[in-house]
Amino acid sequence: MSWLSFLSQTSCSFEGEKTYENVIVLLRRHWIVLISKLVLLFIVGIAPIVAWFFFPHNNVFYFASGVFYLIFWYVVFYIITMYLLDIWIVTDHRIIDSEQHGFFNHSTAEIHLSKIQDISVVIRGVIPTFFDYGTLEVQSAGATEKFFFKQIPHPNQIRELIMQAHNRFIETHPNDVEVHEQ
Predict the structure, then answer these.
(1) What is the pLDDT of residue 114?
(2) From edge to edge, which strands make up the β-sheet containing 23-27?
(3) Has residue 21 got a pLDDT over 70?
(4) Interatomic CA distance for residues 95 and 33, integer angstroms
(5) What is the pTM of this model?
(6) Which domain holds residue 95?
(7) Is residue 162, in this structure, part of any structural domain at all?
(8) How far from each other are the two terminal CA atoms of the chain, in whole angstroms?
(9) Rounded Cα gap, residues 61 and 39, in angstroms
(10) 100 and 177 fall within a common domain
(11) Same domain, yes or no, for 138 and 160?
């Protein structure tokens, strides 16, 4: 879907990135999740147009339609904003979970690769199976027990990438000592 490429263009750098860190993959929810929400919203968005044929055209109708479309566009921009700002970054040292919970509520958490205990993939339903997206659950030994990569594309491939990065990190950092920060 090349016409959606503007949604994923990035320099693969982020706030808090360490100089020795390399980004392996930057993830967002699968594009079908965004498109399905927008399609459903636009189906709801034609309600005032349909109502135009059944209700009298008076000031109350115009006012209600105006309020409806004001809320409609707010929800459209909210959905797009949440899609763009919910990201998961896998580097060769850690995993960063950056989630937006509304316009003014943001949380960021991270797991060092050495703390990963288990990774599992959950794909439920016909559409997620067909489009190959699902939830990746990363079990940690740290304070944050689990990370959930929700509705990401190709979760099994991402699981393998994380496992390879974890194994490389363990091999190159014996006893979990960060050689770059000494």
Answers:
(1) 82
(2) 23-27, 87-91, 94-100, 106-112
(3) yes
(4) 22
(5) 0.75
(6) 86-181
(7) yes
(8) 45
(9) 25
(10) yes
(11) yes
